[in-house]
Amino acid sequence: MEEDGFQSISWDDATQRSNPGFADMSGVGGHDDLDDDDDFDKISPTSPPALDSFASSSTATVRGGGEGGGTTSTGGGLGPDGTYTWDGKSMTIEVRDPVKEHEGSKDMYVSYAVLTKTNLPTFKQPHSNVRRRFQDFVFLHDHLAKSFPACIIPPIPDKHRLEYIKGDRFSSEFVEKRRLDLQRFADRIANHPTLQRSQLVSDFLQSEQWSVAKHGHLAHPPPDAHRSLADSLGDTLVNVFSRVRKPDARFVEMAEGIEKFEDGLGNIERITARGRNRNDDLSKDYQDLAAGYQGLGYLESGITEPLNRFAEKMLDFSTLITHQNRAAVDPFLLQTHSLLAYAQAHKATIKLRDQKQLDFEELSAYLSAAAAERDRLAALNSGHAAAPVGLGTYLRDQVDKLRGTDDIHTRRERMRKLDGKIKDLQEAVTTAHDTSTAFSDEVLKEHEIFELSKQAEMKEMLGRYADGQVEMLERAMEDWDRVSGSAEAGSDRQIIPLLQRIRVDV
């Protein structure tokens, strides 16, 4: 595979770089447990840099891309034709032609044609056409999430369990909604410079023996089974209630921006859904009103024909409102819901980055506490006064004295064990720092890709919604201006003048 300037990192199997320091542990401060102060600067003069200095080491800049071929620091962006190009490589995926397989049997399911056009060198042919079912898309999503934990994996459509209970999962409306959701999922995969190049995506889009390829990926899962000391200690020390001690301002601002976006888009979704319901009610009211005018026309033979024509146009307008809901409002609501789910996936990635930073902070605190305990024991053996200790250490020393085990040999044995633990922790802290730094850089790139995708999707869905509204209003104006025929039919064919000339003698 050629260089694409946007490489993924296997976070659970991060390569350890050479130990940059920790040679002199005499400068470690007096931490005797993990609940004490979080001043990590006392570890050593050659410790990894503090987390608040990560901003200077990032190679990614977050900036938006415009429609005129905006570019990003990852080597690509959105072209004028709406196609994403990364280092000259692009991909388009089309999900279409749903077909019911094994129809009439208990094993019936719906398959979709997946057409791909790309110039990526990892693909055998520039064009491919395969059929995949919904479960295949779920497999792709789940395994991408395991293989690329630092990437924002697009959300997969919900299972819609209620549709299964009602027995409507094979209805044309349900299948079309699912196809649109799968299309958005495929578009986001195709527009992602890392995911589009993965071997799993390549097999999914072009393999004629997908079952064999899928079992191959199951037999060789991502290297998440190789757990380092940082991972194992992180699981022990960190819980869901922990928070990073030195939050990175870049990611705090990023998370706040996503929350504001979710709030704004959620309000739009609620207002649009409320308007849709009102339009449905209005459509029914027009139908009732049309029936009333038809009934009125039957009372007098002289006004039957114009009132029937007026009622007919009201029915047409009612149908137009319903069509506008189905053609413009419903797709807008579906895409809004999908974009909100995409934002949630981004927030999950930021939370995972915070977890990596938290692992580094907790391991650093653990290392500081172990080094402080070793220095305290060394001071006692040399006859000097030890540094102040916490209540837990003081009580343990008193118990050792009562047992008669607080002698120089016991302290030397404890120091020997602490030296081994400190050495392991030095390596673990270095690895955790490297992983946290690399993960942060990758999340910055992911945010840039998310912003480009969000801008393009917002422009597309708002444009389609506006076009649908304009089309409905133009057709309504045309219907109300004329009863039938061409524009040259004259004012005698217009509805309103006809109604104005109606006279009913009382």
From TrEMBL:
Residues 63-80 have a biased composition (Gly residues). The keyword Transferase does not apply. Residues 1-85 are annotated as: Disordered. InterPro entries: AH/BAR_dom_sf (IPR027267), PX_dom (IPR001683), PX_dom_sf (IPR036871). Its main location: cytoplasm. Keywords: Cytoplasm, Lipid-binding, Membrane, Transport. Belongs to the sorting nexin family. This is Sorting nexin-4. The lineage of its organism: Eukaryota, Fungi, Dikarya, Basidiomycota, Agaricomycotina. The gene is SNX4.
